[in-house]
């Protein structure tokens, strides 16, 4: 891919004008060829880590985990509580983390798998970049960020991005937008008719899939909780089938349920009627929920979701985990606890505290805002 990147930069620079200057810096994901291209050009490069700081630290420990036989697992016989609950006490800044809390794909990778080796190599070579941007903020992940500061010369926690974007004049953002699915804003009008903090928002992100049985159990649990809900069900969410619910579900929830294919999530989470969020715990959804002060029921499926779930539930006190063996009774019980129980009330309080910290971080003199200024002035506007 390096030749492609080099060709692209050549074309951009050849067409440079006074209004469109040549490329003088790169902001990239963690594809290694971008570092090589920046080095060849003698221009700075910042790697943008879209996952949490905790997840990035786990990536950084992939080789030691491999050497200690903790990842990937050799076979399914290791999937016991004794093994999964084993505490890993040597990962910097992540005290008490267990094997089960690591990004879940660590369990399944073959040692020769290209993704396994790419992830390991990318984390190890990230130090060659001019800077690393982490979509987080200091007050949220302070301990692990302190550990990362000692490993990499320039780490810049900048987030939550949506709160920073909200400070940009709207006219400057009108032409910017990206969605995998068409949003259905009608759900906002439906939410307007509901009481404050009375609705559960359910969204498992853009790529999670379920089988029919899981979907029905989840739906019946929501129905039996007797709480109103907005549920986002993508057209491709059910493996090999359409999302079809039993007649009893449709009848019981016709007045208190709203199902859509997609929605403007930030607006939904910030709507006054939303009292809780059932999520797969992808980092984008997790940090948006934190920014909105909404507590979560976490149902991680793969990737970094398990790590995010651990921190939401055990470290930040803003979530409860739904077991992967999804059944309606468990869903019903947890939804009721989230919306009306004592633990739910404590989670709401903690969520609002985290929101306050997020708002402070993105204020003009907040840590994330200052880190953005530092990134621009110390790295992106400099030359290697």
From TrEMBL:
<comment type="similarity">
    <text>Belongs to the UDP-glycosyltransferase family.</text>
</comment>
<keyword id="KW-0328">Glycosyltransferase</keyword>
<dbReference type="GO" id="GO:0080044">
    <property type="term" value="F:quercetin 7-O-glucosyltransferase activity"/>
</dbReference>
<dbReference type="GO" id="GO:0080043">
    <property type="term" value="F:quercetin 3-O-glucosyltransferase activity"/>
</dbReference>
<keyword id="KW-0808">Transferase</keyword>
<dbReference type="GO" id="GO:0009718">
    <property type="term" value="P:anthocyanin-containing compound biosynthetic process"/>
</dbReference>
<protein>
    <recommendedName>
        <fullName>anthocyanidin 3-O-glucosyltransferase</fullName>
        <ecNumber>2.4.1.115</ecNumber>
    </recommendedName>
</protein>
<dbReference type="InterPro" id="IPR035595">
    <property type="entry name" value="UDP_glycos_trans_CS"/>
</dbReference>
<comment type="pathway">
    <text>Pigment biosynthesis; anthocyanin biosynthesis.</text>
</comment>
<dbReference type="GO" id="GO:0047213">
    <property type="term" value="F:anthocyanidin 3-O-glucosyltransferase activity"/>
</dbReference>
<dbReference type="InterPro" id="IPR002213">
    <property type="entry name" value="UDP_glucos_trans"/>
</dbReference>
<dbReference type="Pfam" id="PF00201">
    <property type="entry name" value="UDPGT"/>
</dbReference>
<dbReference type="GO" id="GO:0005737">
    <property type="term" value="C:cytoplasm"/>
</dbReference>
């Amino acid at each position: 891919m390096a030749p492609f990147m080099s060709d692209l930069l050549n074309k951009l620079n050849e067409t440079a004008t006074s209004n469109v200057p040549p490329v003088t810096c790169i902001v990239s994901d963690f594809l290694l060829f971008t570092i090589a291209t920046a080095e060849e050009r003698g221009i700075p490069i910042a790697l943008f880590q879209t996952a949490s700081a905790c997840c990035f630290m786990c990536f950084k420990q992939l080789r030691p985990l491999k050497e200690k036989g903790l990842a990937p697992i050799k076979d399914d016989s290791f999937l016991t509580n004794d093994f999964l609950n084993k505490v890993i006490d040597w990962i910097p800044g992540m005290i008490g983390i267990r094997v089960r809390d690591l990004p879940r794909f660590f369990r399944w990778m073959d040692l020769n798998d290209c993704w396994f080796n790419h992830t390991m190599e990318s984390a190890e070579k990230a130090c060659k970049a001019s800077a690393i941007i982490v979509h987080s903020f200091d007050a949220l992940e302070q301990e692990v960020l302190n550990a990362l500061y000692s490993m990499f010369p320039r780490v810049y926690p900048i987030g939550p991005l949506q709160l920073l974007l909200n400070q940009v004049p709207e006219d400057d953002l009108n032409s910017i937008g990206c969605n995998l699915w068409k949003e259905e804003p009608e759900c906002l009008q439906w939410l307007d008719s509901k009481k404050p903090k009375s609705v559960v928002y359910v969204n498992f992100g853009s790529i999670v899939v379920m089988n029919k049985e899981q979907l029905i159990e989840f739906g019946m649990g929501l129905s039996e909780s007797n709480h109103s809900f907005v549920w986002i069900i993508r057209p491709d969410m059910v493996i090999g089938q359409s999302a079809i619910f039993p007649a009893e579900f449709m009848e019981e929830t016709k007045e208190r349920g709203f199902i859509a294919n997609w929605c403007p999530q930030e607006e939904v989470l910030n709507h006054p009627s939303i009292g809780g969020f059932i999520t797969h715990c992808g980092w984008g959804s997790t940090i948006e929920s934190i920014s909105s002060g909404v507590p979560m029921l976490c149902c991680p499926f793969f990737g970094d979701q398990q790590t995010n779930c651990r921190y939401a539930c055990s470290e930040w006190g803003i979530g409860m985990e739904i077991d992967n063996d999804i059944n309606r009774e468990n869903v019903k019980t947890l939804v009721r606890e989230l919306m009306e129980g004592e633990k739910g009330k404590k989670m709401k309080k903690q969520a609002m505290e985290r929101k306050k910290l997020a708002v402070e971080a993105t204020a003009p003199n907040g840590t994330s805002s200052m880190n953005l200024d530092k990134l621009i002035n110390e790295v992106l506007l400099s030359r290697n």
